[in-house]
Design goal:
The chain has a 3-stranded antiparallel sheet with strand order 1-2-3, covered by helices on one side. The chain has one domain (7-115). It is an alpha+beta fold. The relative contact order is 0.20. Helix 2 packs antiparallel against helix 3. It is built from 4 helices and 3 strands; from the N terminus they run αααβββα.
Length: 116
């Protein structure tokens, strides 16, 4: 963790954290949906492999795109000097100072955050 922030500076990151969390949530959800669909198509292809090859390839491309976008959202947090110990739920550690001591401010995506 590089630059340390005071409580006010850390608090000013909350709108950005919520925005990035929304992006991460949407990407996670879409990846889960596409992985489930891929699993179903993969199973169906056992009986008709010719009919699903192109669809599976398109699905794989879409999955890679969503994973790349998810990775970029997480990289944005690292670029701010934050740590991301977990992506599900999204957990962010913000290096800080309080009363002259080093601290780590903690923010985690919650059900309340997920609904907003």
């Amino acid at each position: 963790m590089a630059n340390r922030m005071d409580h006010t500076e850390a608090k000013s990151l909350l709108p950005l954290l919520r925005s990035i969390a929304r992006e991460v949530r949407e990407r996670r959800s879409e990846i889960q949906r596409l992985e489930a669909l891929r699993e179903e198509l993969d199973y169906a292809s056992l009986t008709s492999p010719e009919g699903f090859a192109a669809t599976l390839q398109d699905l794989d491309n879409e999955l890679r795109l969503h994973q790349r976008c998810l990775d970029l959202a997480i990289c944005e947090l690292y670029a701010l000097g934050l740590e991301v110990p977990s992506v599900e739920p999204l957990t962010v550690h913000i290096p800080g100072t309080s009363n002259g001591s080093k601290v780590v401010f903690y923010w985690q995506e919650s059900v309340e955050n997920a609904l907003s």
